[in-house]
Amino acid sequence: MAVLSRLRILSWAPHRSSLICACKQIVYAMNAGSLGTSGHVKLSCRHIMRSFCAVEMDNDIRGCSRGSLIVLEGLDRSGKTSQCGNLLAYLQGKGFSVEAWQFPDRSTSVGKMISAYLANESQLDDRTIHLLFSANRWEKRALMENKLKSGTTLIVDRYSYSGVAFSAAKGLNIEWCKAPEVGLIAPDVVVYLDVPPEKAAERGGYGLEKYEQLDFQGKVAEHYHNLLDSSWEIVDGSQSIESVERQLKDLAMHSILTCQRGKPLTNLWSH
Question: What is the span of the domain harbouring residue 154?
Fold first, then answer.
């Protein structure tokens, strides 16, 4: 087969295997002497194979690319909501697809029940409210997964750790508290804004909701520390807003780039 005929294969080969096979046939024919000593053609074919494989590898990585699940945790009035807003603006300015979420999501029917409870407008058993908080997160799980897989990074103000820490602070068994959360998406990074309960109590608006009591917040802090794992980063929330913001930017960028390189999604507390 002439060189031209062999090369025509490359123009229509739609798959990696077809293209590489065509190149190999050309190189084999040259080595066998049937195509003479056209070294430059042989070199070109090898270059095509290397380039194609590099592109395919890059495409494979891009195919696994996804958004990052960034969770901010901390005591009430630790600065989470403000920092979520600042981080959202920063990442949007960098051109990332990013959204800010908050739990509880008070826009849903379950969320409205939780909101009434937190505002002291209704009374619920501790186990009941814990399961409602968990159900509120499960309401958003499918959407969360779709967003992440489509490349959107999510900055989440409170997640499962809040539910477990707050309920355990009421005296509920911590393993029982974790059980309804198993199977939710595991965060890529959890940033815990570490603020002493006494300092948080000095901030504006403290005491407006059910759980904003100094003694109770101290118990919550203890249980937060019992939940620490390798995905957590502790940031001193007593620093200036600007200092905390700088650290969050660095942590977020590292997490996003890691997820863009193909880090798989995993489930929370599933092993």
Answer: 66-260
